[in-house]
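Aim 2 progress. For (2Fe-2S) ferredoxin domain-containing protein, the working sequence is reproduced below.
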Amino acid sequence: MKKLLKRILALIRQIFQQFSSTEKPSTRPSYHPPIPPIAPILTFVPQWENGLVLVCSQCTVEQFSLRSHRINRGTTASEELQNWLKSRLKFDGLWGKYRVVSTSCLGVCPQSRVVVVLRHNAVGQQCFIVSPQGEREILYSYIKQLNQ
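Predicted structure tokens for this construct:
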């Protein structure tokens, strides 16, 4: 085992010496074929001119139902928040300026909360962790404030 460790340390020293030396190693120049030109991809100007609201669809996989809204039985809290944001934006006449989109996991995974990313052209992006029922008005106030 000691011999193996000594050999590994010797190899590591050799590697460090090779990289720290100012001399170029004597290797043959490698041939790199020319890079073919990249074909253009169609672009467009989006309808949502102010921003984009991304709602994580994986945050609350437990079922969410409102007692007063039996129609919503079977929807998740993420879907409920997304639908609520869409309806509020439409009601306030901001639907063309903003777009609410469901996205897959954003890697934060808060318990009983939803991750929302607000991408606005003027301020960049803001990431929120919200309670789908308790803090949705506060979230909407951020969105509305950016429009003024």
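The longest strand covers residues 114-120. This observation will guide construct design in the next reporting period.
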